[in-house]
Structure formats: C-alpha cells, structure tokens
Amino acid sequence: MEGQFDGTTQSQYQHVPGPQAGHGIGPGSTNSSSEIEIICGPLLNYQRMSEEGADVFWHGSVLIVTKPEQRTPTLELRTLGALNPSSKVRSSAKQTIEGLKLYSDPDKSFWRFSIRLPLVEAEAKWQYSIPHMRFLSDVSKEPSREFIVPSATESMRIMFHSCNGFSVGTDEDFWSGPALWNDVLRIHQQRPFHVMIGGGDQIYNDGVRVDGPLKQWTSIGNPVKRREYPFGEHLRSECDNYYFNNYVRWYNTGAFAAANSQIAQINIWDDHDIIDGFGSYTDHFMKCPVFRGIGGVSFKYYCLFQHHTAPPLSTFTTDAPSTMEANADGSAGGDPRQLENTYVYKRTADDPSWIVGKRPGPYVEEKSRNLYMRLGKRIAFCGIDARTERTRKQVNYPETYDMIFERLASEFRAARGEIKHLILLLGVPIAYPRLAWLENIFTSPIMAPIRLLNRRFGFAGGFFNSFDGSIDLLDDLDDHYTARHHKHERRELVVCLQRLAEEHSVRVTILSGDVHLAAVGRFYSTPADNMDALEDPRYIVNVISSAITNKPPPKAVANLLARRNKVHHLRDGNTDETLLKMFEKQPGGQEKGADWNYVTMPSRNFACITEVPDDHMGNDAPANGNGVNGTVHINSTGKTGKARPKAGKDGHSPLHAGEEGAGTQHPAADGISSEGPLKGGLNVSIRVEIDNRDREGKTEGYGMTIPTLALASKDKVGSVGHPQLHNTTAAPENMTRRQ
C-alpha cells in the first residue's frame, strides 16, 4: 500500500521545455515506427534543489537514447504518495514532459526530460513512464520506473561508488562481472537511496587501444611517429563509434542499468572515462593529436550520458583547424563534416549546479565542469573535476579553486547555518599512505639502462606503458595528491578546506576512489593542540571506496600500504594525518589481507552515507547538545571538557565516539541504520564483497560516524591555538597565490 494523499489531486498539466534551438538539421531519414525504440536508458540524474517561497523543489532529468525519431517522445510523471504508508503528504499534479533533443545523427538521438517536483512533508515515491517505448537491449521491459526523494526537512541518503569497470585483460567472468550492483539494489530495497554519486571511472574506455580503432596507433614502436600520428576525421569517427557503443554496452548491463533508472546519479569523470592515465603522462605526449582527439570524443559522451547535457558542437581533428583550439566560448569550433546529417542542441545557459572553469584544459578543448548542489536539508555536495585541467604537475588551475571556494562560501552564507556537512568529491584519495620511495626509484637514473633495453629489444615490455614509454605504474603514482608534484597543491587545498569549515561551522568530508581498495583517512589537529575532534575544523575524513567492479590489487600491495600508514604531519604545522583502523575482521571470514592489516581492504566495495537525525535540527539548533555556534560544549561522554580519547604515540587511536568500535559491530555498518553515537552526524558504511565468485555480490559492512562541527567559543578556541588557521603561511587568501 502506498502512502496516503492529503487533499485532492490537481488536474494534469503539460510541462513543455520550449522550442528546440540548435545547430544542424539532423539525419535526413528517421525512424517511422509507431514505437519509441530505446537503444539505452532510461538514466536518472539529480541536479539541484531550489526554494521558491515556502516550497522546496527537486530538479533532475531522465535521459533516453533512441533510434532517430520523427516525433518528440514524452514522459509521464506522477507521485505514488509517501514511502511510509502511515504518512500523509500533499498530492501533486501528474506531469507530462516533452523530451528535449540534445543530439541526433543517422544512428541515434539523445532525449532529455527535465524534471521539477516538490519535496513534501515525508519521503515520497515517484513514478515515470515513457509511452510507446520499446527496448532494443536486454534490460527491464517494465513500462515504468520508480524513484524516491526525501522530505523537505530531510537530508539525502547517499550511495557512493567508483571504478565501475574492468581494466584491459581482466578475467571478467572470474570476478562475476559487476556483481556488487545486486547488493546496491538489495540495500536500496531495504531503505532507498536518494542519490548515487559516481566518483570517477563510471565506465572503462581503455579497450579503445586494444580492440578498438587505436590498436594500430598503439602498436607503433617509434615514440616520435606515435606522437606525431594524425587524428583525422576518419579516425575521429571510428573513435566516436567506439565510445558510443561502449557506453551503450555498459549502461545496459544488468543491475547497473536497473540502478541507473531508479537512483538519481551525480557523476564526475576520471581517467578511465577517457583512457587510462589521461593527463598524467609527459606533457609533450599528452599534447599529441591522438590524445587530444580522444579527449574531445570522450568529453562528448561524458556530457551526454553522465550529465544529460548537450555535447560540444564538434571535437578535435587534425584536418579541421576550427576544432584544434577552443573558441571564445571555451569550446571547440564547428566542423561541417561532423555536422553533416547531425543536430546538436545549442546550450542557452550552463546548469546552475555547475562551476565552470574559466579556460579550457591543456589537453581537452573544453572547460572543467565542477559541481555544487544541496543533498537535502543539511548536506551540501561539491564535486571537483580533477581531470579536465590535469597535467603531470597540477590537478586544477588556481583560479578554478578560487571559483569553487567562492561559490561554497556564498552558498554557506545564504544557508545561514542550515548546512551542517559538506561532502567533497575528489576522484583520487588525499589522505593516503605515501609511496614517494617508489616514485624515486621509478624516476631515478638506475632505470635508464632498463628503459634503453626496452626501447631497443622490448626487454621488460610489461613494465612500460604503450603510450610515452614511461614505467607503467608511474602515471598512477603521478595521479595521487600525495605525489611529490602535487604536494604543495594538496597542502593548500586541505588548509583552505579547514578554513572554510572553521568560518562556516561546517564539517567537511571527502569522498575518493581510484585505488581499488577501501580505507578511511583523516586529517586532524596535532595532539599538542589538545583539540576535541567534535570542535576541530581540521578533522576531515577521507572515505576511500574503490572499486565497485574492477578487481582489487594483490593483498601484498594492500599490506605494503598498511605498513606505510605512518602519522604524517602536514607542513602547516598544525595537522596530522593517518588511516583509521576500520577493518577489524575479514569480510565473511574470507581472507583478503594480513590479519594485522586493519586499515586497507583489498576487496571490491561501495559506500553508504546516512544522516543520524537530531531532534533539535528542525529548530536550527546545533547538534551534539551545543548552543549557537557550539558555545557550550558537551562531549561524547556527556561530561564537560575534552572528549578526545588519549591517543597513543602512534596516533592511530579513535579520535571521538564515532570512531570508537569502528568496523563490523558499529551501528553504521549495515548501511541502513540512522542510529549512531553522534546526533546530526553522518553514518558511513563501506560494504565489502565477501566472495568474488558469488554472482549475487553479497557484502559485509564496516561502519563509523562522522560528527558535525561544534566550534567552541573564541576564548576556548584561542586556548588551543585554533586561530593559527588564519595565521599559517600555508593558507593564503586564495589559491591563486600558490604559484
């Protein structure tokens, strides 16, 4: 039984997006079938919330890919009432939404249905359907899909994943394919997710160089010839077809396809969405035509499939000078050959959730797309596009950081204390063990003879990559924020986040993937500061969840990283960093790592985040029993004074009640519970695969709770040296000054 409606249903109305405005006339012949033939989809995205008077609205979209259509498809949207049958909610009118054509060529058309719906008194279920649709792929043939939105006073329940695909050469059957998506759907059935955050590598396009159109180019032995190889229209067209078909294949796969249609997505790309290591090879090689070409093609389908937005007018080719440099609007110019029998929607404005970079990336003729949006009442989200602007020596332009922090500060001021948590997405971990010694070996002169033998005789061929001839692991190491090239940028980013947390009394939590194992890193004030973690703006947790599909590293690698889990000292002089002891037992008794390794888990996984409710939050009272801005502090033991347990010299002890008992016995471990030791905090569960031979993808959960930030009074803060956040030379007025 669905929840009850309170009041009478309004009459149906038509929501029309307005006239199409775009470039090109589209394909000359279109599908004459009476049915809407769906190649891929439906895919559900979340974009933002808006307040209109006393009402709060949810904004998102549904995307379908069809055979070229003569007519415009429509989507019917209606509410099914409250998720809880005992709750009453206001009814909403049924909507009929016309599709907006984003792109069309002789083989396919992309249609977006923009959704705007009210958030009401209780968590609510909505249903959408597309009349006359016929699926051409092996996905659910049900005529409708359902999704859940939070109430107007709730924060969203979040699922986080990364590395959703397989590296080239992986035995996919041995790993039971993308089996963990079955567990995602099981948990979703028990307690629905409101949003699903993709932290990068939502798809693996690396096969383009193995069984795709770049196979011949990759096989060229001479690095100079490979670097100068042209990327003409024919090769671009072949790569375009490859990327499109790979997206269709993967996004139509089993439980992943089901999740995409019923849990709203937020996505930020990473290298495998383009090709392995993109941005982290040597600069002269990254500027070669082939890499610039596939950067453009992958950006096109990233826009369409992952953001439901129009692609660039054309993408880079060496035989169309207009595409080789970005024009005044920061995008590649038009190429008449690419626009033949093609339609591209003309973007009238950037989505309000975007923070668009000021200038194009160094290897992609497009600007970065960073994201900001509210995830319900008390959680804000920011995703940093750490790939479009990336080089071997930088992750993002300084001015991009400035834009992001200015937007965050503006949003926090406008929220007037309502936002308690900021979730920041960084594709690559930032609180993570160092491997500088391995970098030093790989870049040292002792590797020169081996590199020479490789070039002349193919010696140790598997040790070097097929692109620029560098050591294969070096691009992965250079990707890390902890790599020596990025240490200065990393330090300033962390300190600026700490300052942001302090100025707005918002707890910052970072989500990361990429490394194919699970871990929980955290930054925190040095023991000399005697800072209660509940009051500590330097306390930032880095939830590392990777991979949901790709195979994990050997347990020896995870154990090596665990041995490198030292207490690191950020060069601001006030911040320490280490991994949390989270994994106190092996999942389901299956040995994954050494029995002494409690900090890195080499098994496939995903994460669930659930807010712990606080009875006073509806009245804008701070959590954890504090007065305004935390001027009266009650610690986790219920006594006044310092709550932080006395840490041992190794600095690995729990820092607050939410870290105590972290692991399988913690209340947060099941990925469902909103019970926790810290009211207003975030329950984090990392769900770890038990057996990769189990096609049901069953997992075991490991949990901990992240507290809200309850800043102490200025006098009290001053006594522990907190104002040094403003005085440290490592925290400039803005990120631009770091170079």
Automatic annotation (TrEMBL):
InterPro entries found in the cross-reference section: PhoD-like_MPP, PhoD-like_sf, PhoD_2-like
Region described as Disordered: 1-33, 619-680, 716-739
Domain PhoD-like phosphatase: 145-311, 375-442, 457-610
Compositionally biased intervals (Basic and acidic residues): 647-659
One Pfam entry name: PhoD_2
Ranges of Polar residues composition bias in the record: 1-14
A GO CC annotation given for this chain: membrane
Alphabetized PANTHER family for the sequence: MEMBRANE PROTEIN, PUTATIVE-RELATED, PHOD-LIKE PHOSPHATASE DOMAIN-CONTAINING PROTEIN
Protein name per its UniProtKB record: PhoD-like phosphatase domain-containing protein
Species annotation: Vermiconidia calcicola
